[in-house]
Target: 6-phosphogluconate dehydrogenase
Amino acid sequence: MEIGLIGLGRMGANMRDRLRADGHTVVGYDAAPGIGDVDSLAEMVARLPGPRTVWTMVPAGEITRGVIDELAGLLEEGDLLIEGGNSRFDDDDRHAEVLAARGVAYLDCGVSGGVWGRTEGYGLMVGGAESDVARAMPIFDSLRPAGPRENGFVHAGPTGAGHYAKMVHNGIEYGLMQAYAEGYELLAAESRIAAPDKVMTAWQSGTVVRSWLLELLVAALGEDPAFAAITDYVEDSGEGRWTIEEAIDHAVPTPVIAAALFARFSSRQDQSPAMKAVAALRQQFGGHHVHASSED
Amino acid sequence: MEIGLIGLGRMGANMRDRLRADGHTVVGYDAAPGIGDVDSLAEMVARLPGPRTVWTMVPAGEITRGVIDELAGLLEEGDLLIEGGNSRFDDDDRHAEVLAARGVAYLDCGVSGGVWGRTEGYGLMVGGAESDVARAMPIFDSLRPAGPRENGFVHAGPTGAGHYAKMVHNGIEYGLMQAYAEGYELLAAESRIAAPDKVMTAWQSGTVVRSWLLELLVAALGEDPAFAAITDYVEDSGEGRWTIEEAIDHAVPTPVIAAALFARFSSRQDQSPAMKAVAALRQQFGGHHVHASSED
Amino acid sequence: MEIGLIGLGRMGANMRDRLRADGHTVVGYDAAPGIGDVDSLAEMVARLPGPRTVWTMVPAGEITRGVIDELAGLLEEGDLLIEGGNSRFDDDDRHAEVLAARGVAYLDCGVSGGVWGRTEGYGLMVGGAESDVARAMPIFDSLRPAGPRENGFVHAGPTGAGHYAKMVHNGIEYGLMQAYAEGYELLAAESRIAAPDKVMTAWQSGTVVRSWLLELLVAALGEDPAFAAITDYVEDSGEGRWTIEEAIDHAVPTPVIAAALFARFSSRQDQSPAMKAVAALRQQFGGHHVHASSED
Amino acid sequence: MEIGLIGLGRMGANMRDRLRADGHTVVGYDAAPGIGDVDSLAEMVARLPGPRTVWTMVPAGEITRGVIDELAGLLEEGDLLIEGGNSRFDDDDRHAEVLAARGVAYLDCGVSGGVWGRTEGYGLMVGGAESDVARAMPIFDSLRPAGPRENGFVHAGPTGAGHYAKMVHNGIEYGLMQAYAEGYELLAAESRIAAPDKVMTAWQSGTVVRSWLLELLVAALGEDPAFAAITDYVEDSGEGRWTIEEAIDHAVPTPVIAAALFARFSSRQDQSPAMKAVAALRQQFGGHHVHASSED
Model:
């Protein structure tokens, strides 16, 4: 197939390579000059034969909305746009509506796999109409891992279902990472454990906790066995936050995912205003010592 | 009544003052020289008329066990020992047994109120036999706040019940403090809120969240409105930990008290090994930036 | 002062009584016929001398928005609307804008105190312009508890600050209630504790955990000492949810408030899909017994 | 090698099969008559050539302690006992001491893999002396999965290190399971998601959350796509509890593992006393409706 790919960052560039390696013709565009095959969205659209298929892979929110609005003015009836970035699933409703007004079909596609996707394939979760999914299947089949289609690809439901599934995937990921991380700290805290990294290495085979994330953690420990070179500062992307917001909206208790999110918030605080308040309170009722800020 | 009081630290000294102010004769002893009325436990026992009442108010654990063992060798049949420190409630079983072998009665008494107890009275939770409680009631009545006895004193049950009740009291206290502290941080984080301290001041009357702890927090904010002078380092005493251990033992879900305890653990970590592991993991799968430890 | 009061439910009717008892003239309106002093908003507006003060006290969201839109068409330049319901604080921006277009001033006022406010006074948190707050002060002074104004009333900041403060107040309230509740369950789980209600009764004076909520819990235990007559089904209002959403927006860790919210979600589930999944997983790897749904 | 194996339940019987398949001579014993190769521990010991190797695989706690005490009286200097059950790691100190008094060596071995271990191999975590580990290596090599030894086996440290590592492994497992379970419930709660089981099926390849536990969850969903046949009742074994106790002892924040444990506690409660207390409190201050227990 021929496909226009907008956004050639870490994810987009790898996806382009994987698609080309599988025989597709990719017309790549990036807002940064000199990276893409064309210099503008208009040029990209002009280079593609109709009915066109274009894939957006740019930062979620403002930028994705801007790109889709511009594309709505360039694409034609019968074209198909697949939004593969990390859009919030309710943004998909808006995107679909904007494009439908021009007769352009829309699919949302959650893409998992990170930097490993280029070689191993990407996990794909798609929302939209069955016929549009069928039409883009050659692309999905090239992006997903080898093996049975249903193990790396799902048509999750109507518009938004793909990004909703991806959002939940990422929420789970937060919980999984935090669980391993707490376990790592427990190993590191106990003097009987000679080498936490060796214990985690041994968990890769035969145990209940074996997983791809564990393999990555073992790889990281292999590079820096006690994480001496890095700090505990952890960013969070939107999807962990949205997961909790959806949990609240659906009244679903998600204590583990929320705890994982809050741990990241805490990791980025130099001083916690809340814990200052607790320290101050303890001093008030019990005369307990507080640490003066100059003691730091 | 006449009573021997062992341990004249912040709590013990205040209690001695309150008891004397109410007409009791207190023979105080402290391991630190020059603080007490006598120089040894033996001298204290000798000064008290039988059947004696003695009250221990020393650090929980090793020290309390040592003092009680020594007293077991000095006290006589018919004497009564009241352990008012922060003993773990199952230590009370041991204490009672050691003393019972000598014919000495035992009460455990959880004491709440901190530095304010001297003037306002202490909340008291007592475990042991009814007749022993009755015998020590003049002491309890002097220590507890004015007002109906049942609002500041309870005979909670047999041996250990007093310290169990105090342990739960402290567990609740952890949760309450953390709830206010999270609220404080939310106020401080929002630009619309001109002065978080003024909002909390206004909560002292009429609101659902009014409490003594809130008054203390307002007092603390009055001294240092943005907690600029202190750090977020928060100690925890044994009782918060024991509360979670008992929750586990009884299979009682205590997410709030546990979260409050863990927040204190986190507050004392300069770098979190767990969050380093999460940062390292994110880098592995997503190529996400980590903060080098030299960047700190 | 003269004031129009819209919404005469549990809160509104009590506030009307308190205002009248303090000498104000209240023109009350309720959508339910026969409750108010007038039969329509138009009639209420016609009855009030200009510049008018009206207070909305109706369910947050759709209904409040509808009432304010209707009032925007009835009120005149120089009038003042005070929204005292539980509006989300960012709704206040919208309300203020709608009214400003007509020259009508707007204050948002968070009101705490529940059914006790009529006699004890309400805690008030107000957002808006200083001059508008000054103008309505006679009303605020009558609604708030006796005592120093700053202990029961705060001008928290510009538009939205009042409802933001109230939202945080309610988030804290969730945490406080859950902390006491976990403590109650720990007392009830331990056989040494003869009567959990008596222990909590004794905490009302002298202890660190004394509070108004504790008094209410003791009152509830007085009516039904083991909560035998009620179930564990607990509703949540919007404000607990919004608190977590704001915590996420501000990247403030709020593990205690979130845990309290999730506990309410769980309390309303007959069967937890998540825990079914855990049960199924345990069976898969360990051959552990699951409870068939017919065993219930 | 020749080895005595005590305990032929689900785990022990499978391990015997795997060892025999790999050429070892196993003398099995079980307290239940007719299952083992011998009728008593004494007979088992008599059948084994010295220096003997015996492996205990019986329920942790009382039973394991009893068996080891009995074996201490039967084994001889130079023999080796490997405790492969789920002993608490500090029990290992006691076991080692009891046996050392008789000149019998001791290894503790955490065994993971559940019912799948017989065919796939078991993850093994061992504590004890290097020379004892070396001596038993043929057994460990047969039990662990094929592939590099260090990926399925670790000599984690001195006595207790094996069971400590296994305890942490299980704590992590709690967190992982709960993360997937929360994600499952979020998928099931959203109407856009046509089939949660299909989404999870698609996560098995290419995604960040792929793991063995996910495969098991997909298998479970394959048997019962909406878990209609089972209830949400989830047991917990000792190891999740011990993990939190150790976290407390080491002051390691473990919010995710604790939340997972508490979710299990909650799943087993028909009515939550804590949430009854919250419901009662809401009624007290707000006049909110409670559900009468007869309404259930």
User: Anything to note?
Assistant: The beta strands of chain C are 2-6, 25-29, 53-56, 80-83, 105-112, 123-127, 153-157. The longest strand of chain C covers residues 105-112. Chain C has a mean pLDDT of 96.
